[in-house]
Design a protein that fits this description.
155 residues, 7 strands, alpha+beta, two-stranded antiparallel sheet, 3-stranded antiparallel beta sheet
Amino acid sequence: MSLFIAIALYSCKAKQNVILETRDSIRIEYREKIVKDTDSVLVYLPSEEKAISTYDSTSYLKTKYAESTASISSGILTHTLKTIDKPIPVQVVKETVYKDSISYKDRVVEKEVIVEVEKKLSWLQKTMMWLWVPISILLCIAWRKHIIKLVKLFI
């Protein structure tokens, strides 16, 4: 009889444990971008003046950004050189570095979940389900004297 009850209880199990897994990962991506910009800068030259006196008939003075004046007075040649007081445009290359980092975090969580699984009943299980009530009623009728004695013992 106890074997019959154990089989009946075991056959009703329709739940299963399913384990979901957990994974956690971090990925960091670094980027570096170099941008070169060309720009004009105005540079002011300091004022500079040179003068030379000579007994010769010719004189020559030269600078990159200058004015020159030559004159003869009383047999003396006077030569004056003066720089132009204005800004000079100069091309400058500026290098800018842009740094960036992106972090990606992936997480998979593992947990145990109880999932109800429907499965088809075997012919034995179907038969036991249909015959369970009539058999239990017949057993109660057949063993009624023993059942009544047992109840009186506990009362």
